[in-house]
C-alpha cells in the first residue's frame, strides 16, 4: 500500500527530518542545541506516523513527555508543544513533497488533519491521544457527516432555538429564531438574551438560569420584542446543559401571536354561543310559559263560562231559554277567539252548512257556474243561497262584493 | 395590465437606502411599501459595523479636528483613484454631517462619544453606533417605519420591473412567500407604483458566479463578509429595464477580516479600530511590516495578497483599548492574548528575532517622531507598543463591497443607457448604484452614501405626479 511505503520512507529519513526541523527552530529564534529537543521530536514523529499508517496499527499512547526545556521560553506548556508540532508538520510536508508525493493531496490533507487534531488535543489539555488513522475506516455515517446533518436540522427546525451562555449571551441561533425576532444571525449571536424581552421577562430568565438543574425544563409566557420594537406574546422553554466546564441554556422560543389571537377568537366565539344559548333558553321558556298560561286560561274559561251554559241548554226544554243560552255561548266563543289573527265573525255562525260550503267556494274564487257544477245545484238555487248569505252577513244594499268580504274570514 | 395591489411609491430592499427612501417618501404621500426578499429585514446594513463618516461634525468640533466636505471629497477621490463620479461623491461629502444629525435628532440613534480614524481618511471623522453595529441605525429606522405605517413585506422577491408604453417604470412583479434562495418558490403578484419605484437592493458580493464574471480573480473560494442575500438578480433586472452599468468589476475586499471566523464577524472591527491604527501588520514568513496599516483598503489588500502573504495584526494593551469588540473576539478565539511577544511569535509561527526587531523599530519611530517608511500617519495619541499583554489576529481578505452598480444622477434617477436620459419614475440608491466611490470605497463612507441618496430618492419619488 502506498501509504505504508511512504511511512517507511519517512521513517528511513528520520535523521534528515530532525535536522531540517532544528533548522526551522533556530530560524524562529529558538535554540535547539540549548535544550534536548530530540525526545520531543521522537514522540511527535512517532505519533504522527502512527496516525498516518493504516488502521490496524493502533497508536501507542506514549507517556507524557517530561518538561524538556527548563529555561521555559514559554509560559504555557501547550503553546510550546503546539509550536513544536506545527514546525514538525511543516517539515514533514516538505519531506513528502521532496519525495515526489506532492500530488498526493489526500495524504497531505490527512497529515494536516492529524496535526490539527493533535493541536486541538493539546489545547483542550485532553492529553495527546489522536484518533488512529482518521478517515481510514469507513463507517456508515461518519461523524463529520452526522455533525453536518445535525447542524442542518438545528438550523432549519420549525421552532426557534437559541443557546445562551453564562454571560447571558446568545452563542447560537437558528433560522426560525432569527425570523421570530426579525434579526439576522450575525445580530443575534453575541446579543444579551434579556434585550429580546421586557424587564419582567429578563428577571424570569435570570431566575430560571439560577434555579434550573440539569435535565429540568421550565416554560414561561413572556413578552418578546421584534426588531421594530413591537411587543409580542411568546413562550420560552428553558433547559440547562453543561459542556467543558461551562454551562449553557438552550432556549426554545415560540411566537404566540397567532395562537393568542386564535385563542381570543375562540374565547369570543364560545362566549357568543353561550350567550345565544342563554337567550334561546329564555325565549323557549317564555313561549312555553305563554302556552301554558293560554291553555289554563282557555280551560278555565271553558269550565266557568261554556260548560255551565251547555248544561243549561241540555236540561231546559224551553225554546226561549235555550235560545238565549245559545246566544250567550256564541258570545263566549267569540270572545275566546279574540286575539286570534283572523277573527271568527259572529255573523258567519248564522250560515247553514250549505251556505258555508257555498261561501268556501266563493272564497276560493269559484264562479257561480262552477259552484253549480261542483255542488250539483241549479243556477237559481245558488243565486238564492248567495242572496241569503248576503242578507245574513248584513251585506244587503252595500256595494261590497261577497268574495272580497269573505277573503279574510275563517269559515 | 392586471395589478394585484397599488401604492404611491414602491421601495425594493430594506437596508439603509431603502428605509431612508421609504421614510422620506411617506412624509409626502400616503402609501409606501417596502419589499424585501429575505425573512428578516436589514440586509447588509443591519450587520454592518455602524461606522459613519461625517465631515465637520460636532464631535470633530469638540476634538478640535479641522475637517470639511472638500477634504472628505478629496479623500474619496484619492482612494477611488479618480474613478469617482465626482458630482455624486460631492453630494455625499456635503450632506454627511446633516445626515448624521438626522439620524441623531430624528431617529434617535445613539453613538459612542469618540471618533475613530479609519484608513484612507485624512482625519478622524468616523462616528460609531453605541452597539458597534449597523443595527443601531436600522432598528430605529424600522421603529419609525412602523410608526409611519409603512408596511415591510418580507419574503417578497423582486422578479420583474414592469414598464409602461413609454418605458417608464409602472410597477414590479414579485414572488410572494419566497423562500430564499429557491428562485422558483413563492407566488407571482404585480404591484403598481402610482408615482415611482425605488431600487435599493444592495450589492452582489455574495453572488459568486456574477462577481467572477466581473472580476475573475474573485473565485468561489474567496470568503465574503456580506449577508447571504447580496446577489445580483435585481441589478440584472435594472439593466434589462435600460439602466446604465458603471464599473461593475470594482469589487472591494476587506483586509481586516479574521481567518478564524466566518464573514465580517467581530474580528474585522477589532482590526479596523485597534489593530491597524494602533498596532502593526506583520508578514508571517518574515516577521516584518510591509505596508502602511492605515492605507486605503485597496492598497492594503493588494499588498496582503501579493505573493501569497499570510498576515497577522498585533497590538498591545494600550492600543487594544480602542477595540470595542475585544471581549467577544477573545471569547470566540478570533483574537488571542499573549503575555509576551515571544509567546505570540511561537503561537503564530512568526520567526521571533525578526519580529522583535520589527516591533523595536516601529516603537523607535514613534518615540523619535520619525516618518514611517510606508507613510503611516503618526497621530499624537499613538504610543509605542511596549505594554504586555499583546494581542494578535490572523487575517484573510474577504469580498466586502461593490463599488459598481447602476448609474444615477444627482436626483437619484436611474439613467437609461441608450438615451443618457433618466428612466421615468425609476430611482435607485445605496450599494446597487455605482460610481460614487470609484476604485475603492473608504471605510464608513457607505452608510452616509446610502442614507443621503436613499433620502433623495424617496423625496423625489414622492414628488412624481400620480398616475391615474
Ligand atoms: C459586514 C459589513 C460591515 C459593514 N460595515 C460598514 C460600516 O461600518 N460603515 C459603512 O459605512 N459601511 C459598512 N458596510 C457597507 C454598508 O453596510 C453597505 O454598503 C450598506 O449597508 C448597503 O446598504 P443598502 O441599503 O444599499 O443595501 P442592503 O443593506 O444590503 O439592503 C438591500 C436589501 O435588498 C434586499 N434584496 C436584494 N435583492 C432583492 C430582490 N431581488 N428582491 C427583494 N429584495 C432584495 C436584500 O435582501 C437586502 O435586505 C459594511 C458592509 C458589510 C457587509
Plain-language structure description:
The complex is a heterodimer of chains A (about 400) and B (about 475). With about 400 residues, chain A is α+β, with helices and mostly antiparallel strands. Chain A has helices at about 1-10, 15-25, 40-50, 75-100, 105-125, 145-155, 175-180, 185-190, 200-210, 255-315, 320-335, 355-365, 370-375, 380-390, 400-405, and strands spanning about 160-165, 170-175, 220-225, 230-240, 240-245, 245-255. In chain A, strands 1, 2, 3, 4, 5 and 6 form a six-stranded antiparallel beta sheet that branches. Chain A is rod-shaped. The model of chain A is unreliable at about 55-75 and about 125-140 (pLDDT under 50). By secondary structure, chain B is an alpha+beta fold. Chain B folds into two domains: about 5-205 and about 405-460, FAD/NAD(P)-binding domain (3-Layer(bba) Sandwich); about 255-400, Flavocytochrome C3, Chain A, domain 1, CATH 3.90.700. Chain B is about 30% helix and about 20% strand. The longest helix of chain B is centred in the N-terminal third of the chain and has 20 residues, at about 85-105. Chain B is elongated, with a radius of gyration of 23 Å. The interface of A and B includes residues 178 and 190 of A. The structure holds flavin-adenine dinucleotide.
Number of helices of chain A: 15
Residue fraction in strands of chain A? 5-15%
Note the main sheet of chain A: 6 strands, antiparallel
Mean pLDDT reading of chain A: 80
Helical residues, percent of chain A = 55-70%
Provide the domain count of chain A.
3
Could you say which structural class the secondary elements and strand pairing of chain B correspond to? alpha+beta
CATH topology of the largest domain in chain B: FAD/NAD(P)-binding domain
Structural domain count of chain B: 2
Question: Strand content of the residues of chain B, in percent?
Answer: 15-25%
Low-confidence stretches of chain A: 56-73, 126-139
The N- and C-terminal alpha carbons of chain A lie at a distance of 119 Å
Provide the low-confidence segments of chain B as ranges.
none
